[in-house]
């Protein structure tokens, strides 16, 4: 696997292998203040068309599984002060 190189668009809070599983926490630096109702609606549509989107998410969008439900494998997303965090 080639090395992930961070750039001006994102950074990693966590990036490690554990039991042959990649565990990562990546933040894409976006300015949430530039978002409006239409932007949020478009983002929601994008979430829903991504593979393995779970419609029964708890508090935030999830794919493949849900951490809050105890699933071992999952991807989730949330808006943080620093950006969009996966």
Question: Can you offer a commentary on this structure?
Answer:
The protein has 86 residues and is an alpha+beta fold. It contains one helix and seven strands; from the N terminus they run ββαβββββ. It has one helix at residues 37-49; strands at 10-18, 21-28, 53-54, 62-63, 75-76, 78-80, 83-85. A hairpin with a 2-residue loop joins β1 (10-18) and β2 (21-28). The longest helix has 13 residues, at 37-49. It is globular, with a radius of gyration of 14 Å.
- Total number of helices: 1
Q: Which regions contain 5 or more consecutive residues with pLDDT less than 50?
A: none
Main sheet properties: 4 strands, antiparallel
The CA-CA distance between the termini, in Å, is 20 Å
Give me the Rg, rounded: 14 Å
Let me know the average pLDDT. Answer: 82
Structural class: alpha+beta
Shape: globular
Can you count the beta strands? 7
Secondary structure: helix percent: 10-25%
How are the strands of the biggest sheet laid out side by side?
1-2-7-6
Proportion of strand residues: 25-35%
Name the descriptors.
7 strands, alpha+beta, three-stranded antiparallel sheet, four-stranded antiparallel sheet, 86 residues, single chain, 15% helix, globular
């Amino acid at each position: 696997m080639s090395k992930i190189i961070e750039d001006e668009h994102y950074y990693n809070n966590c990036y490690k292998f554990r039991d042959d599983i990649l565990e990562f926490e990546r933040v894409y630096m976006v300015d949430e203040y530039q978002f409006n109702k239409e932007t949020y609606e478009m983002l929601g549509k994008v979430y829903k068309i991504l593979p393995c989107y779970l419609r029964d998410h708890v508090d935030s969008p999830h794919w493949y599984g849900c951490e809050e439900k105890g699933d071992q494998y999952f991807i989730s997303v949330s808006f943080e002060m620093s950006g969009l965090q996966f």
